[in-house]
Every structure is written in C-alpha cells, then in structure tokens.
Design brief:
Layout (H helix, E strand, L loop, with lengths): L6 H5 L3 E7 L2 E6 L3 E5 L4 E6 L3 E7 L4 E6 L16 H14 L8 E6 L14 H16 L3 E6 L5 E6 L5 E5 L1
Parallel strand pairs: 2-4, 7-8
Antiparallel strand pairs: 1-2, 3-6, 4-9, 5-6, 5-7, 9-10
Helix pairs in contact: 2-3
Length: 172
Amino acid sequence: MRPERGQAAAAVVDWFPYATSGGVPNAYLHAGHLFVSGTPCRVSTILGSCVSVALFDPVAKVGGLNHFLLPQGPENTQPSARFGTTAVPWLIEALVAAGAQRRSLQAKLFGGACVLRAFRSTAGNLGQKNAQVARAILLAEGIPIVAEDVDGERGRKLIFQTHDGAAWVRSL
C-alpha cells in the first residue's frame, strides 16, 4: 500500500529528544511511530515481536526508522504506522521527501522475536510475520536489506544513527 501524498509526513511524529552524546542528539521512538532526519541523530527503541526497519541513503546522508507492532491492520481500519503494510511504505516516502533517492536506499531489519514461551512452537508467530511483511515490501520496492537481526526469543534494544546508517543491537 502506498500512502497518499502528505500522509507519510503526518506519521513522522512523537519522537522524544533527550541528552546529546558526542554532539549528536538522541531520540526515543515509541511503537507505532517513525522518525526521519537529514541531520545527525541517534534514534533508539525497544523491540520484542515488533519490527523496526532502518533505512539510510549513504549519498544524501538521510536516515530513518520505524517501529511497527502488527503486520497489517484489520480491513476498514485507518492507515497507521502501527502496521507494517503502512509503516514501511510511509518510511520510504518520508525519506524520499527528506531528500533521499529511492535507488540509493539501504535497509536494516531488527526485532521480530517470539518473546512469549507459549507461542514458540507455533509456526509463523507474530514476530516472524512482522519480519516477513517488511522483507516483502522492501523486495517489492527494490531496496536491499544489507543487515538484519531478527527472530529469536529475546527482545532487543536498538540504536540507529540517521547520518551514517550505523546500528547497534543489544539483547534484553
């Protein structure tokens, strides 16, 4: 699903700046939101079964991150960055609007764990479905996934830098 013009910009909300480190501002990204910046910023988030797609254009030095909870929403639901089928296209469109070139984008994929023991034997758990949706959209858009840390049984803390595409992940 491709957003209407202007929808992606409306989704770039609710990031919470906190202290700077090394002169680079830090921001925390809540679930169901996305963040894009053409200036240096470190964005962090906590993931369980949720997935974050980090996109970076190394030429334009524009990067962004989303954090979605579910692969897709129910029919007749308003588009929301809580759903992968909306959050990934919105992130792509927001980066392009911020000056990135679609053909230069590189993706990194994080999260998608199965943190609840009761669901671990279930084929196609929620985390796996979230990761599958992100992969499918990125493939359809021709955006290569250059790194990923998905699946498993533990949550993750993710830190992503918008200005150089660097990412750090720590298991929780």
